[in-house]
From TrEMBL:
Its cofactor is pyridoxal 5'-phosphate. One of its GO terms (biological process) is tyrosine biosynthetic process. Residues 105-499 form the Aminotransferase class I/classII large domain. This is Related to Aromatic/aminoadipate aminotransferase 1. CDD domains: AAT_like. GO terms for molecular function: 2-aminoadipate transaminase activity; aromatic-amino-acid transaminase activity; pyridoxal phosphate binding. SUPFAM superfamilies: PLP-dependent transferases. Keywords: Aminotransferase, Pyridoxal phosphate, Transferase. It comes from the Eukaryota. Belongs to the class-I pyridoxal-phosphate-dependent aminotransferase family.
Length: 510
């Protein structure tokens, strides 16, 4: 797509932190271009000699996803029990592919923005998927989204600045923000994600509600398969949110590691003659890449004309968290400043990890990469459906409907959320009088957590993910929350774990 008619991003220097503004560019970075010139007498940088690198060869084996159509891949997964017959063997000794990152480059300093062939692949991928609509958007490779967020906090925030979060949030994000002494203000969520009216109300009435608290510079959202709530922000709300961010000059951090784990809608099983009927058909409705893309939600990148959206991308949930590889997508000005921070912290992401990921991506090609996501979608759909079917079955069998609410079925990601109606617990009133409003939820949350642990079941506590409002108590004292995941659990453990859950709830409430 030509970018000739597009506008450039706005400058957001006025929102940068003092730390960021005082940090310059690393002078040595500007000399790297000479290193690649064989005519050059390069005595200027402390690079170890190639002949002393210990590794000679890297090879990897992966499924060959190049030649299958979408329907074939689905048949392979659904009918052949996931046994692919073809593998790709990547052997990176010499330049097997022009796009391969040679070992001598992977192990050396340099290319701290990301290796050029990987950047090229990812840029095409982002363009094909989200089609950013301003000219100077860019990519910066990093060590995944946890690091990506930490780096962005440093670029934008001074201590006592304010960031808007959803009222439940990934716990590491909360911890990273608190460690930098940045204030958080929660915005309500419902089963369709962030509640726009609450955002608008808080921004409009900031002084009345929050007094002297700094006006927010940043907002952080997990739009698909929210961690921990499991919900997905509906597309219909995005434009209004973006307009509010423009009006109040706020930068958006879109942390979206579950984007490619989007699934078809889940249908709750129906009950006939005391038997559950699974209404979910094996997903079978995708005919082409375009059809697949059309079924996915939109990124804020696709409506961002200003360059105020920074998207955190991560390979953790697609290729494995140990790759420690991810990247930022955003305006060049902002990413240049993050890059300066990388120079004094991360330096560059692991060259070996980039070599592997780049080698695989370029062997698969853009279509093969989409085929991989298709595979994830089918497998995650099966896992989610099994989990929720089992949950509803046990709730019914133990007759605990009255005490348990299940959040809207996830349309993406790996998390589901359960609410316990603790106000129906026989000890609730006594504990409320004894402990007061502040402590009653924590008491019951702890009680259930410990009972589950004794029975060898782990569900995460909702309070680990709760964003406290600095000026107003927003706690709902009638419920406690529990987060579960179906990602890496066998069907037997899932079914048994949910049976334990239902048994304990039954014992406690009845
Ligand atoms: C919302 C969210 N962001 C980031 C991460 C971590 O990503 P990474 O492994 O890329 O640091 C997680 C992992 O659970 C997550 O749920």
């Amino acid at each position: 797509m030509t970018t000739d008619n597009l506008n450039s991003a706005l400058s957001f220097k006025h929102l940068f932190s003092k730390e960021c503004l005082s940090r310059g560019e690393s002078p040595i970075k500007t000399t790297m271009k000479y290193f690649l010139d064989p005519e050059f007498h390069f005595l200027g940088a402390g690079m170890p000699p190639l002949e002393l690198f210990a590794f000679q060869n890297f090879s990897f084996k992966s499924l060959d996803l190049r030649k299958y159509t979408f329907n074939e891949i689905q048949d392979l997964i659904l009918n052949k029990n996931d046994k692919f017959e073809d593998y790709i063997n990547g052997d990176i000794i010499e330049d097997e592919l022009d796009s391969d990152i040679l070992i001598e480059r992977a192990l050396q300093y340099g290319n701290s923005r990301g290796h050029p062939s990987l950047l090229k692949f990812l840029k095409t991928h982002i363009n094909n998927t989200f089609k950013p609509i301003y000219k100077d958007w860019d990519i910066l490779v990093n060590n995944g989204s946890t690091y990506g967020l930490e780096s962005l906090l440093r670029i934008f925030c001074n201590p006592q600045d304010t960031i808007l979060l959803e009222d439940l949030c990934y716990s590491s994000t909360i911890e990273a923000i608190e460690a930098q002494r940045i204030n958080t203000v929660p915005i309500k969520m419902d089963s369709e994600g962030l509640v726009v009216e609450d955002l608008e109300y808080k921004l409009k009435n900031w002084e009345t509600l929050y007094g002297d608290l700094q006006k927010p510079k940043l907002m952080y959202l997990i739009p698909n398969g929210h961690n921990p709530k499991g919900v997905t922000l509906c597309d219909g709300r995005k434009l209004k949110i973006y307009q509010l961010l423009r009006e109040y000059d706020i930068i958006l951090i879109e942390d979206d590691p579950y984007f490619w784990l989007q699934m078809p809608q889940y249908k709750k099983p129906s009950l006939k003659d005391n038997q559950f009927i699974d209404e979910n058909k094996p997903e079978n409705d995708i005919n082409s890449n375009q059809d697949f893309l059309n079924k996915l939600s939109h990124s804020f990148l696709s409506i961002d004309t200003d360059g105020r959206v920074i998207r955190l991308e991560s390979f953790s949930k697609y290729f494995g968290p140990g790759t420690r590889l991810g990247y930022l997508v955003g305006s060049k000005e902002i990413l240049d400043n993050v890059w300066n921070y990388h120079e004094v912290s991360l330096q560059a992401s692991s060259g070996i990890s980039q070599l592997m990921v780049n080698g695989l991506l370029n062997r698969w090609g853009q279509n093969g990469y989409l085929n991989w996501f298709k595979r994830l979608r089918v497998v995650y759909t099966q896992k989610r459906n099994f989990c929720l079917n089992s949950l509803y079955k046990h709730i019914q069998q133990f007759n605990i409907n009255e005490y348990v609410q299940v959040e809207e079925a996830p349309k993406a990601g790996m998390f589901f959320m359960i609410y316990l109606n603790i106000n129906k617990h026989p000890d609730y009133n006594q504990k409320l009088t004894e402990l007061g409003k502040e402590k009653v939820v924590a008491y019951f949350e702890n009680l259930f957590f410990e009972k589950f642990i004794q029975a060898k079941l782990l569900l995460a506590k909702g309070s680990w993910f709760t964003v406290n409002d600095p000026c107003h108590s927003v706690i709902d004292i009638s419920k406690c929350m529990l987060r579960g995941t179906y990602a890496a659990v066998t069907p037997e453990k899932m079914d048994n774990g949910l049976k334990i859950f239902a048994e304990i709830v039954n014992q406690e409430f009845n």
